[in-house]
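Reminder to self: tokens first, then the designed residues, so the page reads top to bottom the way the pipeline ran.
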């Protein structure tokens, strides 16, 4: 049992460290190939904190563990709103930009509802996965056009900013010439991420067996919180620095990426049905929690400490309800 927990924790560490190295190397490569800072931020850096969820869900799907794959996606979205946004609001009330609420939070809510409905009626196969990824590309294209036209990149930009604030090496990027070093950094990070995902999925399956609980419960809680650590760190740092608007955008952007990007990639690479437990309870709860989050944000355009406390208490109640 102890060995299994070490395997699980080791997987978390490799995912986080590998994801950071992968993003750092990819950003340096993109800069030296002449990509604009806006496109780099909205794509490479924006995907950076979602890399643990991506690798874990895809590997779980390929290993025949859809409970962990989709539990990780839905559980990460629940943790992002209830635990991470709640904790950030307790540290510093989150100020909400109208553009982020009107466009990005509404898109997050619509995507959550669409996923919950699709999970009831159709398997998460390659057509659905392709559609999700196309929608993500279309959303990013729309956001890039909005930024260039009106200077408004919204939640995805804030997700990128949150990571840059937490990682000094990304905030002050190197201008040294040459591609060899960043390529090696990116490849090394990719290797660590793949190894970490494998360790995490293996450890999670073993823990589910040892504790006598379903893989879905493990995916919704332990795995989801572990893979959401980058979002937790970046949002808390943003809150401590009194950048509550960045914390809000980080959560909303991450939830959009989780469903369209991670859900789409998982369905495309490892088609499967969403487990019945998630379809019946957790996916509808994700929609409800997303709605509550949007309503909290819309009242006074801020999420205060009291509302943050309600969100965190909701996450504690959710975990208590899931575990036998």
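Designed residues (324 positions):
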């Amino acid at each position: 049992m102890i060995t299994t927990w070490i395997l699980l924790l080791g997987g978390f560490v490799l995912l986080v460290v590998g994801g950071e190295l992968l993003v750092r190397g990819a950003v340096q490569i993109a800069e030296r190939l002449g990509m604009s800072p806006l496109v780099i931020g909205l794509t490479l850096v924006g995907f950076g904190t979602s890399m643990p969820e991506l690798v874990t869900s895809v590997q779980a799907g390929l290993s025949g563990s859809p409970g962990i794959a989709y539990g990780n996606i839905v559980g990460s979205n629940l943790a992002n709103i209830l635990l991470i946004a709640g904790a950030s609001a307790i540290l510093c009330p989150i100020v909400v930009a109208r553009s982020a609420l009107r466009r990005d939070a509404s898109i997050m809510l619509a995507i959550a509802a669409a996923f919950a409905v699709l999970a009831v009626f159709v398997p998460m196969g390659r057509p659905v996965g392709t559609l999700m990824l196309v929608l993500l590309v279309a959303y990013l294209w729309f956001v890039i056009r909005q930024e260039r036209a009106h200077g408004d990149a919204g939640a995805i930009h804030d997700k990128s900013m949150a990571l840059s604030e937490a990682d000094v090496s990304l905030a002050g990027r190197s201008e040294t010439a040459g591609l060899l070093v960043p390529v090696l950094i990116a490849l090394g990070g990719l290797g660590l991420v793949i190894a970490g995902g494998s360790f995490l999925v293996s450890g999670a399956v073993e823990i589910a067996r040892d504790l006598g609980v379903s893989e879905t419960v493990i995916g919704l809680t332990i795995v989801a919180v572990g893979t959401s650590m980058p979002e937790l760190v970046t949002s808390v740092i943003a809150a401590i620095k009194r950048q509550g608007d960045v914390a809000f955008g980080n959560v909303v952007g991450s939830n959009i990426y989780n469903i369209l990007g991670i859900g789409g990639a998982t369905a495309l690479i490892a088609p499967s049905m969403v487990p019945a437990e998630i379809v019946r309870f957790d996916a509808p709860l994700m929609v409800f929690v997303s709605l509550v989050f949007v309503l909290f944000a819309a009242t006074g355009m801020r999420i205060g400490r009291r509302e943050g406390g309600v969100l965190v208490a909701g996450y504690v109640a959710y975990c208590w309800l899931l575990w036998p």
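The mean pLDDT is 84.
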